[in-house]
Specification:
Elements: E1 3-7, E2 15-17, E3 39-40, H1 44-56, E4 61-65, H2 80-89, E5 93-96, H3 103-112, E6 116-120, H4 125-132, H5 138-151, E7 154-161, H6 171-179, E8 185-190, H7 207-220, E9 225-228, H8 238-248, E10 252-254, H9 258-266, E11 270-274, H10 282-285
Parallel strand pairs: 1-10, 1-11, 2-3, 2-4, 4-5, 5-6, 6-7, 7-8, 8-9, 9-10
Length: 289
């Protein structure tokens, strides 16, 4: 019987933006839109207080995210001491969404006690240039991934299928880059045309294209757990897409539709719900119910 883990992050695993709604990059697929759905906290002292309050109310972890600076990463520099104190004073799991930080900052984040790094991985130079407006290349992403894997206990690559305006452009290359570090978990996102962004008129990738990428990852990385993450289309055909990804080899999904759960159970999946972020490695899952 296949196992399916359903993840429900909130309220046990809240997401905090350390930049509020500010982002210097404003990538074409996001344009800072998703920052407005996070809890704003741009002061390190208040971040510590906020996390202590979350812990006292039963939270099990936090995801620290935010907008990018002009160098293309979330500016965690002022928050290193706060992160270290959060780890000292609470039992919270600290996960970060860092962007593409420099090597020295990666090392310091690891030293501060970060448990998980959710790393956006792009395998196509044109997509990086066109969608992010960045001069970085896939080599920069590959190098940063290797450095993170040395300094952060758990690094979870995130690959957005169809990021290049719905086209498949480098996703298979991204899988190969991820394969080099052998992650416990690999998360797939799917381009979701969002109001107020330059890609609002774009078409998401087809279900068949999504399945091809997921199936390729399943074949190339048989020991890695594959997850369908938060960002994905939720309109008509949502359950069909979710079930197709599960049948292609994913064993984790964030907030699936009720129909997906019903059909998965009918298909023989053994289902367990986890009140946490889908990036949690196996070694930390035992702490959650």
């Amino acid at each position: 019987m296949s196992r399916l883990l359903i993840f429900r992050p909130h309220p046990a695993f809240p997401t905090i933006s350390i930049t509020g709604t500010r982002c210097a990059f404003r990538c074409k697929h996001c344009n800072a839109h998703y920052l407005s759905g996070m809890i704003p906290c741009s002061d390190p002292r208040k971040l510590l207080e906020l996390c202590e309050r979350f812990a006292s109310k039963g939270a099990r972890g936090v995801l620290l995210s935010g907008g990018f600076n002009r160098q293309g990463y979330v500016p965690f520099e002022p928050f290193l001491d706060a992160i270290e104190r959060i780890k000292q004073r609470t039992n919270l799991i600290v996960s970060i969404h860092p962007g593409l930080p420099p090597s020295w900052l990666i090392r310091e984040l690891g030293r501060a006690g970060v448990d998980i790094a959710d790393f956006d991985l792009i395998g196509d130079d044109q997509t990086i240039s066109t969608i992010l407006g960045s001069e970085k290349t896939t080599d920069h992403y590959s190098s940063a991934l290797r450095t993170m894997s040395k300094h952060v206990p758990h690094v979870v690559p995130h690959i957005c299928i169809g990021l290049n305006a719905g086209k498949i452009s480098g996703e298979f290359r991204a899988v190969e880059i991820a394969r080099e570090v052998g992650p416990e978990v690999l998360v797939f996102l799917i381009l979701t045309p969002t109001p107020g962004t330059p890609l609002f008129a774009a078409k998401p990738p087809s279900t068949s294209d999504v399945v091809k990428v997921v199936r390729y990852a399943r074949e190339r990385m048989p020991r890695t757990e594959l997850a369908l993450g938060c960002m994905r289309p939720r309109g008509n055909g949502r359950s069909r897409l979710e079930l197709a990804v599960l049948r292609a080899g994913a064993s984790r999904v964030v907030l699936p539709s009720p129909l997906t759960v019903k059909e998965a159970r009918r298909s023989g999946f053994k289902i367990k719900t986890i009140n946490a972020c889908c990036s949690l490695p196996r070694s930390l899952l035992e702490e959650f119910s």
